[in-house]
Design a protein that fits this description.
Number of helices of chain C: 7
Order of helices and strands of chain B: HHEHEEHEEHEEHHEHE
CATH architecture of chain B: 2-Layer Sandwich
Distance between the termini of chain B: 49 Å
Number of domains of chain B: 1
Oligomer: heterotrimer
Largest sheet of chain B: 3 strands, mixed
Largest interface: B-C, 55 and 48 residues
Strand content of chain C: under 5%
Distance between the termini of chain C: 12 Å
Helix content of chain C: 55-70%
Helix content of chain B: 10-25%
Strand order of the largest sheet of chain B: 8-1-9
Largest sheet of chain C: none
Number of strands of chain C: 0
Order of helices and strands of chain C: HHHHHHH
Shape of chain C: globular
Radius of gyration of chain B: 20 Å
Strand content of chain B: 15-25%
Number of helices of chain B: 8
Radius of gyration of chain C: 17 Å
Chain lengths: 408, 254, 150
């Protein structure tokens, strides 16, 4: 097997259009931040009933996808599959970039983003949120170190493996933490479930790999370097397994909730009567984000074509957004039951399904997070030796051992 | 360094005896002149002014039978006292206290009651707050320290009573004892600025003035207080008892 | 006794200070109502932020209301009154809590929440009760004499 040669991405004329596009999104996000800073959250669709909105959907997607994007690297160095080795650097870089994008959205949506320093210096250790701040900053450090040992000349393979294991464990903790942000909200019937943590881990595997597939394709197309159909096929099959896992945990989540009488109302809301949320659940999450991708990656006729797998990845991302929208928003829109057995009404929307329609400001902020993640990834690939010169199938011999391919 | 509190309000400084001034020393110069709080030095109300006392637990008892469905005196009083108001955006305007109308699905009985921060003993908002801005004082009053609040709204997600509001717009004309500002979360403070000076929350006072007298404020830890005696004598409940939050707000006849 | 002496020194210092205001490097600070700070202007100039934050936590967290550095109090003493007899917000350009900060390019967010105008009633009270400076000086002088007698 040939040595993998890594090479910086050369910023050629091909970069203009995507570059301008991303720049436009970043500017739109800056506008959005200014709006929210200047006028307050009144310019968003969020209100006192639905307090977390579209920005949180984007932020959580990016954070969850970040830990999932690390999978490829983990498979290579933790599970010793040499064929994945050449993509490991991109995998780590993308993980960092996605997390940065997600955190940027989260922070810029705060009521007082200017007090970020407070968030970094004052901790309440009973709060899972505060623990997450550690998990996030730690993730940057660990994955950064992981990238470093991969790229450092003469670094022994055992270090790559060791740091890789730490990174893998860290990412499991991170996704568990993110899931627990919701899972520990006992007050709300839509969230109060231990299954949230494993569900979020499955989601991270799936979303992260889908994003990885598309970003890899995009960067290699820009660089004019080949990606082998066999590789895409393999990653697509893996994606299929993750998608099935998400569906499985989702089914368990709702079946358990249906079984408990106290959660019957929220289940009826999401599965049958929730209007937009029901549509997003069945149409977005289950059909577009679940069943269709499964067909695309497992049906022999479709799976043979890389385009089908890439389409599946795109659908998984769309379905992922739908799923998070249902989790985040529907869980808040559904009324809290403070007075069991009573019909409730008030000036504060007690007892009624809360209204939420996201504004352009929120969308611009969320998309800005994605643009930021892509910018960081592209810049990283331009200044560092992240991308292998080729990922054609002949260059990736899956039978080679991990050690022999460790050359930079 | 505290100044001697003078009982007569309109006393002129020249009447303060030289001795008194001497005793108080130059602290006269600094401590003294906060309005309301420290003007007592020059003859304001001498305050009870005990800092949050761990021996106490402030609470409310709301008698639902005495609460008239068409009465919102408590809500208006709170709004007036703390400077928030419903301003045409019911979805985003702050509401520290609200009247909730209930109708029993089985019996058809209709009642009306005020809901505000329930000042839990185990408040979920305090548990989840990443910076510790949500806090419980030693005397049981649950507050947002708006100096540390970053506006993440996780506490609003965690509160089972929807007791908290987020300030969605820049504000002007706040009350000097109730600072409020864009981008932070707030809720009923049990009129902590009054309680610290030995007073009663505005809602309770207003309810008393209507003659309904549906609300009692007092120290739940003091067995001699009116609220404790009522609670001992008559049945009452707290909201979401299943969550074991042990709220400081009790409802009777619900 | 030391405190007393300090305050006397301060009062004289103040008078001397105003006489030489032109020589100050900093901006001209609007006059305040009420008696000056016993620790001295220099001390307050250097430490007011720390004092404020410290005492703020006393009130917020412990319910201690009789604090020395109360923002409410700063506003009461340090707000100017406009020609229409209405207090001017202390954070307006050129006003007490703005002059130095503009000069030093410091931004504070306190007045997003805290009102920057004193309650009119308390200013009146303050104005009515406050003896003029000469009176206070004479008063303290008298006490000094009394003090030395002992």
């Amino acid at each position: 097997m040939a040595k993998t040669v890594y090479q910086e991405l050369k910023p050629t004329a091909r970069f203009w259009i995507p570059g301008l596009l991303i720049g436009a999104f970043l500017i739109a996000a800056a506008w959005a931040v200014y709006q929210a800073e200047h006028y307050g959250h009144i310019v968003t669709g969020m209100n006192n009933q639905v307090v977390w909105g579209l920005p949180h959907v984007f932020a959580i997607f990016l954070i969850v996808a970040a830990s999932g994007a690390l999978n490829v690297a983990s498979i290579a160095s933790v599970f010793g599959r040499a064929a994945y080795k050449p993509m490991a650097r991109l995998s780590a870089l993308l993980a960092i970039a996605l997390l940065a994008g997600g955190l940027a959205v989260l922070v810029l949506d705060l009521g007082r983003p200017d007090r970020l320093i407070v968030a970094m210096t004052k901790y309440n250790f009973r709060s899972i949120f505060a623990w997450n701040i550690y998990l996030y900053t730690g993730f940057f450090a660990v994955v950064g170190a992981y990238l470093f040992v991969q790229m450092a000349r003469g670094m022994h393979e055992k270090w790559v493996r060791r740091v890789g294991i730490v990174a893998f464990l860290w990412r499991l903790a991170l996704t568990t933490g993110t899931g627990s942000i919701f899972g520990w909200l006992v007050a709300r019937p839509g969230y109060d479930a231990a299954i949230m943590a494993p569900l979020f881990i499955a989601m991270s595997f799936s979303f992260g790999l889908a994003v990885f597939l598309l970003v890899q394709q995009l960067l290699f197309a820009l660089a004019g370097r080949p990606v082998g159909a066999g590789l895409i096929h393999r990653l697509g099959r893996l994606l299929g397994i993750f998608v099935a896992l998400v569906l499985y945990f989702t089914a368990i989540q709702h079946l358990t909730a249906l079984y408990a009488a106290e959660h019957a109302d929220i289940e009826r809301f999401i599965l049958r009567e929730g209007g937009i949320y029901t549509a997003l659940f069945w149409g977005g999450q289950v059909l577009i984000g679940g069943l269709l991708p499964l067909v695309l990656v497992f049906h022999p006729a479709a799976a043979a074509r890389p385009a089908a797998t890439l389409l599946a990845a795109g659908l998984v991302i769309i379905g992922g957004f739908a799923q998070l929208y249902v989790i985040v928003i529907a869980g808040q829109a559904f009324p809290l039951e403070s007075f069991p057995g009573y019909e409730v009404s008030s000036s504060f929307f007690d007892g009624v399904v809360a209204h939420y329609s996201p504004s352009l400001v929120e969308l611009a902020l969320g998309l800005g997070g994605i643009a930021l993640a892509l910018t960081i990834t592209a810049l990283g690939a331009i200044v560092l030796r992240i991308l292998p010169q080729e990922l054609s199938d002949s260059a990736l011999d899956p039978t080679a051992t991990a050690a022999s391919s460790n050359a930079a | 360094m505290k100044l001697p509190a003078l009982k007569t309000p309109a006393k002129d400084i020249t009447e303060i005896s030289r001795r008194e001034l001497l005793r108080s020393g130059a602290a006269l110069a600094t401590v003294a002149l906060a309005p309301g709080v420290t003007l007592m030095a020059f003859g304001g109300t001498p305050a009870a002014a005990a800092p949050a006392d761990p021996g106490r637990r402030w609470g409310l008892l709301i008698d639902v039978n005495r609460c008239a469905s068409d009465c919102d005196a408590c809500v208006r009083a709170c709004s007036e006292e703390n400077g928030w108001k419903l301003d045409g955006n019911p979805e985003t305007d702050a509401q520290w206290i609200r009247k909730v109308d209930l109708k029993d699905r089985e019996t058809g009985r209709e009642v009306s009651l005020p809901v505000m921060c329930q000042h839990c003993e185990n408040p979920p908002c305090v548990d989840v707050c990443p910076t510790g801005a949500s806090m419980k004082r030693a005397d049981g009053i649950v507050l947002v320290d708006k100096h540390v609040c970053i506006g993440c709204r996780y506490c609003m997600m965690a509160c089972p009573f929807k007791a908290r509001s987020f300030i969605h717009e820049p504000l002007e004309g706040q009350k000097s004892h109730a600072p409020r500002g864009k981008g932070t979360v707030e809720s009923c403070t049990l009129c902590v600025h009054r309680v610290d000076e030995g007073g009663t929350p505005a809602c309770v006072e207003a309810c008393g003035r209507t003659g309904n007298g549906a609300m009692i404020f007092g120290d739940l830890n003091d067995p001699e207080s009116e609220i404790s005696r009522r609670l001992a004598d008559y049945p009452s409940i707290t909201l979401r008892e299943d969550m074991r939050l042990n709220p400081g707000v009790h409802y009777s006849n619900l | 006794m030391t405190r007393l002496l300090a305050s006397i020194l301060l009062v004289f210092g103040l008078i001397a200070g105003t006489a030489h205001a032109g020589e100050n490097l900093g901006p001209e600070v609007p006059e305040a109502l009420g008696p000056p700070h016993p620790e001295g202007n220099a001390y307050w100039r250097a430490n007011h932020m720390k004092l404020l934050l410290h005492d703020r936590d006393l009130t917020m967290r412990l319910g201690e209301r009789e604090i020395e550095a109360s923002l409410k109090a700063c506003v009461t003493c340090h707000a100017q009154t406009g020609p229409d007899a209405v207090p001017i917000p202390v954070n307006e350009s050129g006003q007490f809590c703005a002059v130095c900060h503009e000069f030093a390019a410091v931004r504070i967010d306190c007045f997003q929440c805290h009102t920057a105008s004193p309650d009119v009633a308390s200013v009146r009270l303050l104005l009515r009760k406050y003896p003029d400076e000469a009176e206070l000086v004479a008063f303290l002088e008298g006490m000094k004499l009394e003090g030395t007698d002992e």
